[in-house]
Amino acid sequence: MQRRPKAIVFDMGGVFLTAASRWEADTFALSFPEGLREAAPFDWFLALSQACLTHYTSHAVPRPAVELGPVIGEHLAARGIEPTAEAVRRWSGIVAQWEVRPIYPHVGATLAELNALGIRLGLVSNTVFDGRLHRINFARHGILERLETTVFSAEFGWNKPHPGIFAHALDAMGVDPGDAWYVGDRPDRDVCGAHGAGMTAVLVNSAHVGAVTKAPENRPDLWVTNIASLAGIVARLSAG
User: Fold this and answer.
1) Is the peptide bond before 161 cis (omega within 30 degrees of 0)?
2) Handedness of CA 158, 145, 227, 174 (dihedral sign)
3) Using an 8 Å Cβ cutoff, are 68 and 48 in contact?
4) Are 143 and 15 in contact (CB under 8 A)?
5) Topology of 7-18+101-239 in CATH?
């Protein structure tokens, strides 16, 4: 029987929203529902975006935070735009929109139910860019106020499964790892990372579940279809 947690820390992609693992034409509308509000050729923007993602994924796991300014600057120059700091910053903010997706309908109610049970909530997510647009997205959907801390790898400096990123969130919340659950969709990043930090690992069903069998540390302590069932699980632990 699992212990009732004092805090639950969530992953973002695959848990709160559709993971932005591909930046391609067929996923464009998920992140840019109103289209690209810039006078720029779509093929050029797509090539710029894919170059940024390729540069990010070329680093070994656990990846450090990656500086994408030079990549963006090269693409601006190739298009005849002077790669000033202002231009690079502006286009960085545009490319960063790829990581922003609509929040799943059940997330807001689930976080409210967990708060009502006295559970403290946080977030730790691997991101290519900083968390500014994500926090705006969370606030728009009414969930930012539920999260005591939001830790994005691009701001922290290291990606999951580096144990330091989990410890950073727990330190900010003042919660012991043994009193916290981490909920993610990647056995090889989320489950093993949470275990490495001393947390209980909860796995959400996803296309990545096959990685559970690759190493003992990838096996979750709990397995759920999505996070909508968490409040019920916690309530039963509380009653027991």
Assistant:
1) yes
2) positive
3) no
4) no
5) Rossmann fold (3.40.50)
Domain boundaries, the chain: 7-18+101-239, 25-99
- Classify the C-alpha dihedral 175-178-180-183 as positive or negative: positive
Residue count of the chain: 240
Residues 197-219 have pLDDT tens digits of 999 999 998 777 777 878 888 89
4-24: pLDDT as tens digits:
999 999 999 999 999 999 999
User: By C-alpha distance, which of 188, 179, 180, 187 is closest to 203?
Assistant: 187
